Fold this protein.
Amino acid sequence: MVTVVPVDEFVGGEWYPGFTPAPGHAPFVVEPFGRFRPGDEERFWFLDFHWPRGFTPLGLLWLEEGYSWGAQLAAETMPLPAGRGIALRVAGTHVYAAAIPLDSEDEVAARAERLRQTLPGYLASFEERWAERVAELDAGWDRFAGLDLARLSQPGLQRYLGDARSYLRRATEIHFEAMYPLLANHLAFSRLCAELAIPPAEVAKFLQGYDTGVSDTDRELTDLARQARAAGLAPVFAANAPDQLAHVLSAADGPASGWLARFDAFLQTRGNRIEGSFDVALPSWIEDPTPALSQVRAALTDGEHDFDAARTAAVAEREAAIAAARSRLTSVELEAFDAGLASAQGANFPRWQDDHHLRIDVRVALPLRWAALALAERVGADRPDDTVFLFWPELAAVAAGEQSYDLYRALVAQRRAYFERWQQRRATMPRVLGTIPDQVTDPILIEVFGLNRQFLTAVSVGQDAPVTTLAGVPAARGTARGTARVLRDPAELHQVQPGEILVCESISPSWSPAFTRIAGCVCDSGGALSHAGILGREYGVPTVTACGVATLVIADGDEIEVDGAAGSVAVFRPATYPATYPAEAAGGVATPT
Amino acid sequence: MIRWLDVAAPAELVGAKLARLADLRGAGFAVPRGFAVTTEAYRRQRAEPGGLASPLAEPLRGAIVAACAELRPPLAVRSSATGEDGDQASFAGVFDSYLGVAGPAEALAAVQRCWASLYSERAREYGVDQATASMAVGVQEVVAARAAGVAFSLDPVSGRRDRVVIEASWGWGEAVVQGLVTPDRAEVERDGRRLLRYDVAPKELISTPTLARMPERLRAAPALDGAQASAVADMVLRVEQHLGQPVDVEWVLDPAGEVWIVQARPVTAAPDEPPPPRWDPAAAITPADAITPTTPARSTPISRPRRGSSPAAG
């Protein structure tokens, strides 16, 4: 059964007034960015959760030559063997993404071979390479931050605008250039650890406790909270909502003004960041300090956080987790584990996540924003950020003096209304569009967008179908999916139909005839060496034992999937079942997110 | 018509299971003392006018009673069919076994019930050829069990040969074998016999040898310590070496700390050994069919599974 979510509404549907997009007018690597088009229904599109507000016209520039360009460029140069990066479409103001498949198996094999040549060297020298990129990003940043936009000539502002656009694109290239190899490295290490029976929670510990810039900001905010308390400002913070604090504190006399001076100094070094990623439409903390004030307010009520102690504890926990994992490995396993650990720590994806987030995601759109806002001021726009509702060619024409801003004044108001209307629609936007596959094969997409089996099942059968997973002991390998048959008595054995999955408390030899018919077997008790395991292995029937409550949780007729290697049983319940059922209250049931 | 299990005995006379135990006991392994009522005895009794169910004929009856008198009760009486526990299939648990048999009279009855189990529906469904099969019956001393369980000289689920997998619980091993209790699980490295991991399970039931609720204080207590797990693994690996193939052993740890072999059989179905783990940073994002292995995967089939089925690849 194939589920198709129609894309019709978004093909040639409503669009920002007063601008006709020309897909493909800009350079692209594999596939141009654009609106949904006929034929897109055959592909699988998922709503990109990174940008819940939607995009303004100037924000769309980044989708086109940042996100779409950067992801495809990195996928081609690395190269990624399983796909050619990410294709993007916009519906209203919201962005959907899809995989770009490769044309042939030969191409996959050739790219896999190239990757095998290039990836180890990249990872081994990651620290130096990343340091080079950081230097490039910082040098660009310093140039923009060092210029006073108010003093620039009109041609100077026009050049600044163009440079800021290039900076945003280049920073996005750097983002994807590092993200793909680091993610590959991280996924490979996670997979190796899974093969070595190391739980995922432990893998996270192996990579924690390395310094990132994130804690610097948090430390300074904690210091500011301490100073606010010392200045007797705690009651002011407690009495006012975060978005009122800036106003209230400015209006207050005495200690508040001294504290605000310190807070402003903090914002000058740490405040060039937005509450989102790459979006030119979002204000920085300097423009709107509510997020920072909210953190100070939380620190005042939550009490002191000892950053040094937390860091020391994280390092100790990391080293203990590594020692414990190593003690459980054979000498051959240790060799692979140590090599993987060194690679995963050296080119550390979680650490890079924090690091690049501050250096790239939250700040590289700011120079473009500053230039756009400066232009808005010069042309006397009605609101300071009206220019983010211009498309790039319009903005460039206004900056060059080729077009009067007055032409757009009324249009900007309409576009703002359009943006806000689509922002209201966000909650009801379909999570996926087009043809939903049984599974997504690109591990990068699965990891970045959470496109696992549970997600696909949920979007296929409807949001309200509960999915439950039982964990047990892997007793016979293989996977099987089918209808559950819950048996409590061998006398009922004749009821088992071919292809069904047998669910029972335990297996005695008298159950063996069923093993010629069943596709899988799930038991409440027993180990891998019990009869159930022996029969499962002998008959090639995927078997999971020691699930605890399988006969309580699973009902006759449920669709279930047995993974005999992982020791898990996924229960896919028809949507007609009640949302809660008693076994969940009894415990022992994990509900995956 | 009875044969002491002190030295190797032919399988057609005592069944594969008892032949293996006799072989191991003869080689110095800790196997409980006992004797086999041979297949020849089975055939003679079957030829009696009343058949297998008629009262045991002399001189067999007298021989069993006399032999029982040399053993210290309680006794264990176990089936050992020809073909059972051979290289083709485990027949695990298909035929009857009796633990805690008090003396000669009960032993005689248990022997006859074992014979009868060859004709059970269960045996027929499992594919026993009742026309040609024959059955010996073992009568052995019962070892006092502090803990017991099952151990494989490889990981039967993953196929890995670098470790011994042990499942253990308190008391006798029947609850473990039948899957009535979720046992503790230990993995011991083949080289060096180092304990790699020990996962304690909440053990609800115990074979005493009759089935009972596990005493509260023992439920979450590990049934083996590290040294005991290593000792079990060492015994299993020595059995594997002696028999020349991977084995599955039912073992008992007595209060004095000795590890006894209650049953040993070749592993009948296990996946091919997977290639050893290797670090490859590109592995996770490379589609499986695009991988050209640098070293061919080794294929070490342990035995042919029965009935044309094969363990599904994981």
In short: Residues 292-314 of chain B have pLDDT under 50 and may be disordered. Chain B touches chain A through 67 residues (CB under 8 Å).
